[in-house]
Amino acid sequence: xxxxxxxxxxxxxxxxxxxxxxxxxxxxxxxxxxxxxxxxxxxxxxxxxxxxxxxxxxxxxxxxxxxxxxxxxxxxxxxxxxxxxxxxxxxxxxxxxxxxxxxxxxxxxxxxxxxxxxxxxxxxxxxxxxxxxxxxxxxxxxxxxxxxxxxxxxxxxxxxxxxxxxxxxxxxxxxxxxxxxxxxxxxxxxxxxxxxxxxxxxxxxxxxxxxxxxxxxxxxxxxxxxxxxxxxxxxxxxxxxxxxxxxxxxxxxxxxxxxxxxxxxxxxxxxxxxxxxxxxxxxxxxxxxxxxxxxxxxxxxxxxxxx
Length: 307
Description:
It is a single chain. The chain has 307 residues and is mainly alpha-helical. 55% of the residues lie in helices and 4% in strands. The protein has helices at 7-20, 26-46, 55-67, 72-91, 118-126, 135-148, 152-156, 186-199, 223-236, 245-258, 263-270, 277-283, 286-296, 298-301; strands at residues 163-164, 169-173, 179-183. A three-stranded antiparallel sheet has the order 1-2-3. The longest helix is centred in the first third of the chain and has 21 residues, at 26-46. It is elongated, with a radius of gyration of 21 Å. The termini are far apart.
């Protein structure tokens, strides 16, 4: 076998191979390269060279994508790109066998909930009726769900005392009562700030004193009510997909991944690792995760948001 080049050189050679020899479109080639780079970053975090990867390593990578909420269709596409890359390494003499050969593509009929396109997200926001009592609150809810990937339970329990609008950060409590810090987009932070001013004019019930998002009676919103808000906006926007608050979370993860964000950063933002409150304050790189959100989330790169 040939002596391996570094991963950057191999990926550049692969890009040229896709364009010149395989005749793929530029967009398809870019997608395949992004998929391979995600794998490369994952393997680097484990200290594994690309030419030494084993089938078990690839199963671990695909399991991570599944845990992040990436749809079966997207995972199948990613696997296709990775298989092409390893075939290229075989052709060039860097590998004797393709470690993907025995890995089956995800079953599409069992895929996770639909992922919304950026245009569909925008159409839901545009469908929010203007001038109504709950309009500003609902706008802030959609931007927070989609812009930070929160679970619906994390949104309903989001607290003012754990919100830092200046730093655009929110401490949420996820599964297993594990706390984590999530970055908030400039758009969501601005909307939440406006909503808190409006909220200050309400008569708030005791159980809602520290809760960010309240119903018209001054009490905490329920998960059912958030589900209804999201569902109704999807219908008003003419979206035929089965849309729920969790759809926005899946869309958040998928869009960040496709935008080139680091898998580990997405994993931290979604709360798929146990992080204690102490670790959040001592070791959490706030600026890095905020930069991942602003650099790679299409809704905010399109708006030209800056930290």
